[in-house]
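re the bet — no i am not wrong, look at it urself. input seq straight from the record:
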Amino acid sequence: MLNRFIGLSATIAARSSRSGFLPASLLKAGGSRNQNQNKTMSTGKAFKVLVTHPEVPQEGIDLLKENCEVILVNSVPTDRAELLQKLRGVDGVLWGGHAALNAEALDAAGPQLKSISTMSAGIDYVDVPELKKRKIPLGHTPTVLNTAVADLAVGLVIAASRRFHEGRKKIDNDQWENYHLNWLLGQDIRDSTVGFYGFGGIGQAIAKRLSGFDIDRVLYTTRRRVAKEIEEEHNAKKVDFDTLLAQSDFIVIASPLTKDTEGVFNATAFNKMKETAVLVNIARGKIVNQNDLYEALKSNRIFAAGLDVTDPEPLSPTDKLLTLDNAVILPHIGSATKRTRADMATIAAHNVLRGLAGEPMLSPAY
């Protein structure tokens, strides 16, 4: 039955009861179904779906396989030629990884392509205007990442402010100098002002966790003010960018990458921050001018930085940022937990199935 294909209610409900990420309202198979659709689905696996990465969790692949023929791209890293060849003639795509999703890929697939979902929150590698022009629905998986990314952001706040990286290097270099009373002194989180550049779901999840560290207040800079109830919950106040820079003890970048946010954290911005300030970036590397950040850290213009994202990615092992004691750098692992990745794959698969059925996606990108 078509309901089994696009609703997947029993299957998803069972999964969501274990993982707790899908609201009940999203499990309803909405929309009308005509007799032609029912007839098509009763004949077997009418749709062909490409999964563009072999390491997409099995939870998502299994959902697709129930009623679709699934094709896998096997290369890691993704071989563009294999990807383009296997795109030919597919009806849907679960886009794993961050390979460019552009006109070249859409042309390779052909005009029958009707549904795509990424397995990511950010979609800066997607040519969104091109997909809109072709009227192809696009899904993504934003909110399911919030918990994992927020946990990692708090880890970076602690690691950078308490000099974890520098301390480990001291051990490696046999420089255990705890006979000094002021050895490796860091910055306190308690009673601090935490500023957020971007204060959506991830930023709010970070603020919720940091409240347990007895911070004093939250400042945030966004285009639009968040709801009053959210401000009250987090003791948060909307301020302009200059105020955020000047008054924050910690600044967490949790904003999408756009033409307006690219490079906004530059030498001018760093010169307006406290010398004791810690910068954390879990958003996109290009929001920060890394050359300027290097100079700010090297000269102790700001205290430290914790980065889960860089520009470029992967970062060269010879990059000068890696020579600094006061830079904690991770290889973009914010969503890298087994549960989160399985949830992302499940939502992405459900997005694809909904798009194929001509129904609203669970998590549309537009």
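see?? Confidence is low (pLDDT under 50) at residues 1-43. told u. also The chain has 15 helices and twelve strands. so pay up
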